[in-house]
Design brief:
4-stranded mixed beta sheet; 18% strand; alpha/beta; 12 strands
């Protein structure tokens, strides 16, 4: 059985699942290559406009690196050249990814969440970077992404104490977009959010995302304006740029081509 599955669903949405529930969906070499392949597949498929990433089972989204693999000397297999840890955290992606957090997302699991664009979580979910407990550091983006996602002093406390952030508090800080009661409601909520995105003009969504991702990157105002101008020019050159106003005038739903 594959460690990562990809389902193409109606409405231009894909569901990607880390499928190692017996190991709390910890990342091994198969997960890393599987997630990289999932990114390749969804990027190459013009029909897919939004992607949901989740973990199998009801206990854990992802427990981070599989320490059995690390202790066996196979730690290098947990990353890929293009994607870094899990084949994902540093991978360039043009489409929005939504983390559907079905349980605890700790260590590399939190770093996977932080590498996504939006987050839907169950109330029993928790986040944290407990690497210092094992003499390690959160080297897959967590040390700088978490302080950008929540108040810096709260992030620093979590990083230094190896504490956990419950989903309710994470929602209050804005790390979680939507909070749901349980795992049974999670899939529907995450796919509904993906559908809200997918019904919009694909080129405009991708270009808006490209600019918004750079908001906290350190680029100055002039660079951000230039990036926005470039994004607008790409949108203006698309067929959908004409289709949107035309559909409004004709009082009908737009038919996006994605080109």
């Amino acid at each position: 059985m594959s460690a990562v599955t990809v389902e193409r669903l109606p409405g231009h949405v894909a569901l990607v699942t880390i499928d190692r529930p017996e190991a709390r969906n910890a990342v091994n070499g198969d997960v890393a290559t599987g997630l990289e392949a999932a990114v390749d597949a969804t990027e190459a498929d013009d029909d897919i406009r939004a992607v949901v990433l989740t973990g199998a089972g009801r206990e854990a989204f992802c427990a981070g690196a599989d320490l059995k693999e690390v202790s066996a000397g196979r730690g290098s297999a947990l990353r890929t050249e293009r994607g870094g840890f899990a084949g994902f955290v540093y991978r360039e992606r043009s489409k929005p990814w939504i983390a559907a957090v079905n349980g605890k997302a700790l260590a590399g699991g939190t770093e996977l969440v932080l590498a996504c664009d939006l987050v839907v979580a169950v109330r029993q979910a928790a986040f944290g970077l407990p690497e210092v407990l094992r003499g390690l550091i959160a080297a897959a983006g967590g040390l700088y992404r978490l302080p950008r996602a929540i108040p810096p002093n709260i992030a620093l406390e979590l990083i230094l104490t190896a504490g956990q952030l419950d989903a309710e508090r994470a929602h209050g800080f804005g790390l979680v977009n939507r909070l749901v009661a349980d795992v049974d409601a999670l899939r529907e909520a995450a796919l509904a959010l993906a559908a809200e995105i997918a019904r919009n003009a694909p080129v405009a969504v991708r270009q808006s995302l490209r600019v918004a991702r750079e908001a906290n990157s350190g680029l100055d105002e002039a660079a951000l304006r230039a990036l926005t101008r470039d994004a607008f020019e790409r949108v203006a050159a698309s067929e959908d740029f004409k289709e949107g106003p035309r559909a409004f005038i004709e009082k009908r739903a737009p038919h996006w081509s994605g080109r």
